[in-house]
Amino acid sequence: MSTAVLAACGSGPAAAPGAPGYRQLHEKIFSKGCANEACHSGEKGIADLTFADLQGSYDSLIDGVPANGAAAGAGLVRVKPGDAAASFLYMKLTEHGPALTEKSYGAAMPLSGIEPPGEKSLAAIKAWIDAGAPMDGDDFEADLAEHHHEANYVECEATAADEMQKCFKPTPTDGEYLRIYTPPLEIPASREIMLCSEIDLAIDEPLLIDRAAGQQMNGGHHIAVFTTLAPTGEYAPLDCDDVDMSKLRFVMGAGGAGGLDTTLPDGVGVRVLPGQRLLVQSHYINTTDKPTTVMDAVDLALTTEEESPTLADSFAVIDSDFEIPAKARGFERVKECRLEQDYDIHMLLGHTHERGVMFRFDLLRGDAEPELLYYATDGKLLRSNPEIKLYHEPLQFKAGDRLRMTCRWDNDDATAIGWPEEMCVTFMYYSPGEGFLTCDTYDETPVTIGGGDDKCRKPGDEGNEKGVGKFCSVEGGECVGNGTATLCLENFDSFSNYCTLINCKADADCGAGAYCAMDQAGNACVPNDC
């Protein structure tokens, strides 16, 4: 069948003389190097792109909108027929990792473990796109390049923790930094996985941080750093699917091959308090047929109140009370939150899990048209590596403004799904920081949890039905007659200025919004937000 007939059938334009077609490229390059079990294979691969099917992948590429939010926002398409330089696919294959992460375009392709296309193969891909991206064309000679990924990954043959730490580049010397390491991470063969490692900083004074930079070993995609509101005391890495993300507060992205080191706007800092623990989320894609042992290192840049006088705190708009029906397609929820005071916003990101097919966040001001602040269509990326919007000139919210968050999901499961298996959250940093702000499903306006000082609670905060979490002070007597939570923890820990129940056995003993923290010194009930 001639290429003209194929074009008439809707399979693609006719090829220019000497240019290959997608059929030839798919056979020699994409089906071999991209349709890896851990990457772009199956019914839905990473970034909602699979090369398992010839026609399906072709249709997804031609004028397809990238799942990467920054690339989509810049107006790029996966393949722009006739223009290789404007095609996101070609950028991902030819640009180096640092150039891509600078623009928040993710990792260079392919990831570690797969030999990338060589000069002849890249020239064939360029010729195909520039010729109009036909389905069929001439044959070509494919080649592979030696995979140089030193700029993206830390090479290390060690498997013991102390020896692995020696493989990383030294801590930066352009300021004061705190370096943290994950434990060794076991990455199964042919698997994409996110592992969460709890880190006890053992600090006596608050830390003020304005930047995070990370290093990963072969197959690393990105690192994210959180504070955990419900530390488990288990320091062995866990599959992040087993971690309740609702009890985490995002701190910063910390780089990796597909991530971006987060530097807050000048003069802005975020705080980690004594008693809090960090949780490092490590995203890895093992494209090989053997398990690997890796480790991540994160450098937290420390600042001072003089250098960073703007203290930013967390603000989360949340929809946590929903149920996505079984087999539902395009199930949508809308959450609005009305502001009662002015806020400066310094950072913003959206979050769903992998069933998310649309997320948007709008600012509504008076009778004006809604202002779109954030938009994404790939739940998998929103879960693992969302676009982070930083505002070097603060985004200003005014009293009376409304925030509208819209989430849409496809649920292919035979059972209904709710929180926390799926999520709908907008996370922001705001100032002036006065505590952790939340605006949940039934909140019409933001609610402040905690205060702006180095305490978990502020005067007037009430506890749950058992009294857990009520504000208290040393020898203040606030916990006397307070249900079953009659002990004020501030007598032992200045951060924990709330009433608690000791010797709990399970979370259910602690009442709503609290959990049972188990420690060698004894068990006590802790509010989830502390």
Chain-wise SSE layout:
Blueprint: H1 3-8, H2 22-33, H3 54-61, H4 69-73, H5 88-94, H6 97-102, H7 119-130, H8 161-165, E1 177-181, E2 185-187, E3 191-199, E4 207-215, E5 220-228, E6 238-239, E7 248-253, E8 262-263, E9 268-272, E10 277-286, E11 292-294, E12 297-302, E13 310-311, E14 313-318, E15 323-324, E16 331-338, E17 343-351, E18 356-364, E19 371-376, H9 379-384, E20 389-397, E21 402-409, E22 417-418, E23 425-431, E24 436-439, E25 447-449, E26 487-488, E27 499-500, E28 514-519, E29 522-527
Short recap of the structure:
It contains 9 helices and 29 strands.
Helix content: 10-25%
Looking at the structure, what is the overall shape? globular
Radius of gyration: 25 Å
Residue runs with pLDDT of under 50 for 5 or more positions: 1-15
Overall pLDDT level: 84
| Multimerization status | single chain
Supply the helix-strand structural class. alpha+beta
- Total helix count? 9
Q: Which strand-content bin applies to the residues?
A: 25-35%
Terminal Cα span: 68 Å
The total beta strand count reads 29
**Main sheet, how many strands, which sense, barrel?**
6 strands, mixed
